[in-house]
Amino acid sequence: MGTPVDSQFSACFLAFVTVVEAALLLSENALLRADNARLLKAVEELTAQITVLANGMATSNTRIAELLAIVSRASNKRKPPVEKPPPAEVPSPSQEGLDSRPPAPALPEKIKPEPKTGYRKGRSPVPEHLPTDEHESRPCVCGDCGHDGVDLVDSFTEEKLHIIKQHVRRRVVLRHTVRCRKCRVRTTGESLPAPYERSKVTCEFLAWLVVMKFYLLVPLDKIRNDLELRGVKLSMGTLVGFIERASDLLALIDGQQWQDLRAGGRIASDGTGLSVLVPGLATAYKGYLEVYRWGETVCFQYEAQKDAATLQAKLRGYEGILLTDAEHRFNEVFASGDVLEAGCNAHGRRRWEAAESVQPVLAAEAGRFVSAMFIAEEEAQKAGLVGDELRAWRQQKIAPLYATLEKWMAAVEPTLVPSDALAQTIRYYRNHWPALTLWLDHPDLPPDNSGSEREFQTVAKARLSWLFAGSTEGAHRAAILLGIVATAKNHRIDIQEYLTWVFERVGTHAHKFNMTASGLTPAAFKRAHPQHYHPK
């Protein structure tokens, strides 16, 4: 049996061993924490490198596409001209075949609308929603004799439209720093919202600049000259930097709108050219600007060229209806069966009108069929028909016109030579018949793609003032800003007010709002701020 001394020694020894083991564990834990921190830092560095490589790969792919397009165009220019065979003699149409064609529908006479009556007399009042500057004018002396004893007789109020150039105001924020009496830590007062850290401009100024450039289409050099005349000197590089910052802040919202379009099952698309300055080229490079839209949502996207593979990759996984003009690069998209093709009847009507130069009588007859379809659709829209009622109207009023047009083409086509412009238009209608008639069964589809073409009116006007995009990156940024501005315009909200609201929530105060891209779209702003919606 052990003595008390032995027991005390054993207890001390066990305590010593426990302390040593705890020290070893703490040391091992510290080493593991250091290794973990080192590995996390390595992961962050690798992630940053991957991001840089991905951006470099995207830039390289765009540059390769531009170079391939240049080489392709140069090789096409070197090809010797192909001698065209003399035009074949147009045989006289078979009278028997022409007599069997169905008659074209009689279009209603265009009646000149009577002048509207009931207009309110006098000038329209100034809109009440505008901020008001109130002033008071009261004479103190008689205007006739100059006597200073006057009594108030009557009062009236006059209203005028007024404007203040707020973008040239100066904002001064006095930020105080305090010290805590308890912990002695310094705290500096928070500044007002800004688009980004160390920004030289406010959110309001950046929103105004985007509106001037991408809504009013004012070139940056004119904006710079206007500011300089008021004593605000900014370099072109500074203004370009502001546009780049604005595009980076709005990129997530543009991506959200693209996801909303893909998820909606309905997309209308069109494209047009966009000149871009590319290093190493003596002249501006002819790029391609695409628009994707449905309803009020608009997304512009820049591509180096009209490439079917790029388009197919962009729409991979999309299921729904795609409304577009008949282009070969869409064939692979429709081949999968997941995407239904909807055609543009306005495009077809223009083909009939072009064929009138060769076959004035027959082409005009065919054009009357399409005109009658648009007239019937316009009547339905005026009546406010939607859903099943609109579908029933189209099946009752418009579907018979298509059936008669099909019989008309079957009777007329054998009487034409294949090279005839009217015969080519008939073949166009036969090849795209399911796409051109798809809208009859889908009341949410329009009969044409004119909405997408109207979105390019802004781009067409911009070509007169901008001439070109300064770089490929500039073209991508312009596409983002054009899409956001077009969507806000379609929602009929105050574009500058909306952009200011967004920049305040994605800039230096983003941590306060903690909003996702879906809550920052023009549609979300319209729902949250109905007072900024201005209907027609």
How is this structure best described in words?
- The chain has helices at residues 4-78, 95-99, 203-214, 220-229, 236-264, 308-314, 331-335, 345-355, 360-382, 387-412, 421-431, 433-437, 450-465, 472-490, 495-506, 510-513, 522-528; strands spanning 177-179, 186-188, 266-276, 285-294, 297-303, 320-323, 339-342.
- With 536 residues, the protein is α/β, with parallel strands linked by helices.
- Among the domains are: 202-208 and 237-336 and 469-532, no CATH class; 345-440, no CATH class.
- The strands form 2 sheets. It has a 5-stranded mixed β-sheet with strand order 5-4-3-6-7, sandwiched between helices. A two-stranded antiparallel ribbon has the order 1-2.
- Residues 87-91 have low confidence and may be disordered.
